[in-house]
Design brief:
It is built from 13 helices and ten strands. It is of the alpha/beta class.
């Protein structure tokens, strides 16, 4: 992640821009990464739908490089009317960069920004979503796309689309998780008092991001520390030494704040780590079980069956097959 271009048009929605921009700007504010953020568009100044004026908007970049992210911000679009000259300029630009998209460049949309991606042909054959009021329009504009309802955001290869308004915040946190890891995105969410959300049809959150909707600094510190442990060893003395608190007290506090025991939380983390290793490596199940800290293969299988319907080998095959189908 090097540069983030927010593509803005007249009648754009303020929160569609300000929400994800605030999240990405936190990377620099918290000294996590030096990311350049710039508003670009077909016009140097414009009025938002909410009445606020924006000036000094840079031209649409002529060239993108690896590490760039383009976010097309939602605006007030009237589908029954012809596209405005500004919309046409952005659509042509998106179509041009889409035909020669460099490796490592991502294109995202917030709310009706997906309409412009559709008009540029970038959603053909891809899964996507948008604000629920514009799903039908999106499908009409991109009949070859697979428009999904009741999703906060959808990723298909280098193209990311999100639903309306605050969904741009969720998308920004998701991208930060992909680039910097769950602990960093959890930290940024806490700094901005954001709760991680999912709709029923959305993929489940990583355990590193689950059970985070509380405000207890010690428990957040424990969760951050656990997220950084490559091998999930037994808790016991290591936690007490790290945080200078008794294990019994910490367990009670953890249950109160998270609604799950510390031991259950670590088991879910071990399972989450095992899933990642099944996806990212060709390791044997025995090696993965040992690396994730399970006492035995039998204890791993018992824990696995509580959360997954497919056995580990079949699960691995299905996940890799599904991933290849979306790439």
């Amino acid at each position: 992640m090097k540069r983030i271009f927010f593509v803005v048009l007249p009648q754009m929605h303020i929160l569609d821009l300000g929400g994800p921009m605030q999240i990405f700007a936190s990377l620099t504010e918290l000294d996590i990464a030096d990311v350049k953020i710039q508003c670009v568009g077909p016009e140097s100044h414009l009025q938002s739908y909410q009445g606020l004026f924006l000036n000094a908007i840079a031209p649409l970049p002529k060239r993108l490089i690896e590490g760039d992210i383009v976010v097309v911000v939602g605006s007030k679009i009237q589908a029954e009317l012809p596209a405005t000259p500004a919309q046409q300029k952005v659509t042509h630009w998106l179509r041009d960069i889409g035909t020669k998209l460099p490796s490592g460049v991502l294109i995202a949309s917030v709310c009706t920004g997906a309409v412009l991606l559709a008009q540029a042909g970038l959603l053909d054959g891809r899964f996507c979503t948008t604000h629920h009021n514009h799903l039908r329009t999106l499908q009409q504009l991109a009949p070859q796309a697979r428009v999904i309802n009741k999703r906060i955001f959808v990723q298909d290869g280098p193209i990311y689309t999100s639903a309306g308004v605050s969904a741009g915040i969720d998308l920004a946190l998701h991208l930060i998780t992909q680039y910097f890891g769950s602990a960093i995105s959890a930290r940024i969410a806490r700094e901005n008092l954001i709760q991680f959300r999912r709709l029923e049809a959305d993929p489940q959150l990583s355990v590193h991001l689950s059970y985070r909707n509380h405000h207890h600094p010690l428990i957040h510190a424990v969760q951050d520390w656990l997220a950084q442990q490559t091998v999930q060893a037994p808790l016991g003395e290591s936690v007490m030494t790290q945080f200078s608190v008794s294990y019994r007290h910490l367990s009670r506090l953890f249950m109160k704040e998270c609604g799950i025991s510390l031991k259950q939380y670590q088991q879910i983390m071990r399972l989450d780590r095992s899933r990642q290793l099944f996806m990212d490596t060709d390791w044997s199940i025995e090696r993965i079980v040992e690396h994730c800290g399970f006492a035995s293969l039998q204890s791993f299988r018992a824990a696995w069956r509580q959360h997954e319907t497919l056995p580990p080998s079949k699960w691995r095959e299905k996940q890799k097959r599904d991933f290849q189908g979306l790439s």
